[in-house]
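Follow-up to my post from last week.
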Amino acid sequence: KNEVEQSPQNLTAQEGEFITINCSYSVGISALHWLQQHPGGGIVSLFMLSSGKKKHGRLIATINIQEKHSSLHITASHPRDSAVYICAVTRTLGGSRLTFGEGTQLTVNP
Amino acid sequence: ETGVTQTPRHLVMGMTNKKSLKCEQHLGHNAMYWYKQSAKKPLELMFVYSLEERVENNSVPSRFSPECPNSSHLFLHLHTLQPEDSALYLCASSQADGPYEQYFGPGTRLTVT
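User reply:
Got it. Predicted complex:
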């Protein structure tokens, strides 16, 4: 069993829909990261959070430390949001080392 | 522009070749990472350099040899690779002694024939 699990693996939505991607982890962490990978490979960090909630534009990330669960929400989705979304964690006492989930492929159709 | 560059972007090499991947960061970070991303698998950490010292080698075969001459540059030397080594190789940087956000390069798509 992976230490970081994401669901769903694939998600197709219509433009304008509200999207949720989930991440569960089984290790002690100092932070959780949400990353975005577009076709071609480049990866961008969207959020790093250790408690509560963060918002950037149409993206919202939440974390529940007690339940070891995080969600990434996209409001008013757009075709340009189509990408792979990756959850990763920094383990407690793990420095900056990341442990990754398998990613969620999101496709938003116009 | 992410501040982390990688060259080459694409590489095709035979199993007997020797080649090197280069990564450069312009962000003033003091930790650098090599990752491997194979199809349908999560990103795998290969090596970590912190303050120019290798602090982690994640059971990577010796046909992969990293080099970090200074805090801004990271190399991955490749020799006698196998077809299963074909993958996307990503470099990243961050401040050391995290947790800190990591900044990724665009990757090198490697094909071993």
